[in-house]
Amino acid sequence: MAEGAQTGTQAQTPARMRRPAAGAPLRIALAGLGTVGGGVLRLIEANGALIARRAGRPIIVTAVSARDRDKDRGLDMTRYAWEDDMTRMAARADVDVVVELVGGADGPALTLARQALRSGRALVTANKAMIAHHGMELAALGEQSGAPLRFEAAVAGGVPVIKGLREGAAANAVDRVYGILNGTCNYILSTMEDSGRDFADVLAEAQALGYAEADPAFDIEGTDAAHKLAILAALAYGTQIDFTAVETTGITRILAADIAEAEALGHVIRLIAMAELEGEGGRGLFQRVQPCLVPFDHPLAHVDGPTNAVVVEGNFSGRLLFQGAGAGDGPTASAVVADIIDIARGIAQGFEADMPFSVPVANLEALPPAASGHRRARAYLRFIVADRPGVLAEITAAMRDAGVSIESLMQKGRADSEGEVLVAMVTHEAPEAAVTEALRLLDGSPSLLAKPLVMHLIEK
Ligand code: NAP
Ligand code: HSE
Fold it and tell me: Are residues 113 and 244 in the same domain?
């Protein structure tokens, strides 16, 4: 590979990919030295010899960047060149691969990613927000320059589910892909379940352990899981990423009482992300992130802490389960460095065209979002209502009028608030549109003291 390939935003035509000579080290620029970036440095330092054997060449970090040069990172930073402006790393002659571990869908992370791929440098990122919003553009840039784009760590942390879909399940039509994609939410839900502790308290712990995003609203509102689902769906179905079509509900409205009710029903609550083809001829894409009730005997019910698990149902493979640590420095660094090793091997073998979404970007379909009203499921509905005569009758009448049959119903006074009662029910299987209609009938009722919570039940 020739040194000094052109770089920078000005370049209209992407430079061709840079190729180190056979056996020469693969040189890395690392942007972001936080939880994941620090983990990558520690991993490369600890396992350097093993990695060199497996990659066919040493992998060395030449330049690093973060916000604060003086921050104590518990690592000797003097051995790496420092760049104050991380976007300059894509212009360095001593860099073959840019590793972006800063985060944010736009801003400097995106500028750096574009510059790296345009300049013919490989890009490795853990940034699911950026891939969910700009993955198509970045993949197209990589195709033009022949520079690989890899993002294994962006989905399910250390779990090789992207490789699983791109490689292991490549021969299958995927019937359904679903699972637990956010370690922070899973840590919160399973810890609340085990300890009865408060939401806010457990969230602070997840942040301290390095699981949460810089803005944890991305985790608890379901956005992070939606980013990951949109990426998985594109890989599973050969479609363009359509993050805006993911129906997203987070875990912020779940009460300890919901967790207790679910348990009494033989279920746990998990934030489930799910995608499948739907509609006539499977020509629509259904994508949803939502807290669900999962029965105790379902494999996802035993996924605790920051663990992620993804089920891929292939038409020939059957059910594949990918499971492991979905967040944290070590597991995420493991996925990042695996991508770097892939690039080192690909370059060594004369790897020219990289297809991060399995097929060329131009061949990815643009599927419309599938409607969900006809989907049939049992639903858990929770109301907080005024404690007065006739309220239960009002709720059950709305169910009757919408054609929703009730399987079980619980009513409990709340110790912490006078005059409020929690009513939880599970419906028989019904179209989602019917449940929506029942809630529409109740909308505005003075008996309801809070917006009702709806969670579907996952069947085994
Ligand atoms: P983090 O701990 O907050 O680290 C972010 C790093 O980026 C810090 O080193 C910070 O510098 C640097 N940075 C932030 N803004 C910058 C800017 N404008 N210019 C230069 N440097 C900047 O984040 P993280 O948890 O490592 O996450 C990094 C990426 O990995 C994100 O895309 C995240 O979604 C993804 N990810 C994280 C995990 C996880 O478990 N944490 C798992 C999978 C994927 P300072 O250190 O100087 O402040
Ligand atoms: N905040 C993310 C999570 C990090 O909790 O899953 C891993 O992507």
Answer: no
**419, 338: one domain:** no
Domains of the chain: total:
3
User: Which of 178, 460, 179, 181 lies closest to 298 in space, CA to CA?
Assistant: 460
Cα–Cα distance for residue pair 148/166, rounded to 1 Å: 14
**Strand 59-65 relative to strand 26-31, pairing:** parallel
Q: Is the CB of 211 under 6 A from ligand 2?
A: yes
Q: How far is the CA of 424 from the centre of ligand 2 (A)?
A: 30
CA angle 292-295-298, nearest 5°?
105
Query: Is the minimum distance from the CB of 229 to ligand 1 under 6 angstroms?
Result: no
- The pLDDT of residue 326: 96
CATH code for the domain of 101 = 3.40.50.720
Q: Model's pTM, two decimal places?
A: 0.94
Give yes or no for residue 127 CB within 6 A of ligand 2. no
Tell me whether residue 2 is in a domain.
Answer: no
| pLDDT value, residue 2 | 34
Least confident of 29-38, 62-71, 198-207, 272-281: 272-281
Is the backbone of residue 313 left (phi > 0), alpha (psi -120 to 50) or beta?
beta
Assess whether 422 and 349 both reside in one domain.
no
Q: Is 33 in the pocket of ligand 1 (CB under 6 A)?
A: yes
Q: Return all residues near 118 (Cβ < 8 A) that are at least 6 apart.
A: 7, 8, 9, 11, 14, 15, 90, 141, 145
328 — alpha (psi -120 to 50), left (phi > 0) or beta? left
How distant, in Å, are the alpha carbons of 287, 372, 438, 457 from that of 230? 7, 17, 30, 22
Tens-place pLDDT, residues 251-306: 999 999 999 999 999 999 999 999 999 876 768 999 999 999 999 999 999 999 99
What is the distance in A from the centroid of ligand 2 to the CA of 228? Answer: 10
Report d(CA 380, CA 457) in Å as an integer.
7
Among the bound ligands, name the one nearest to the CA of residue 214.
1
Give the whole-angstrom CA distance, residue 348 versus residue 214.
Answer: 36
In whole numbers, what is the pLDDT of the chain averaged over residues?
93
The Cα 108–Cα 89 span in angstroms is 12
Domain limits for position 274: 168-325
Identify the pLDDT of residue 23: 82
DSSP state of 325: E
Query: Ligand 1: distance of its center to the CA of 331 in Å?
Result: 15
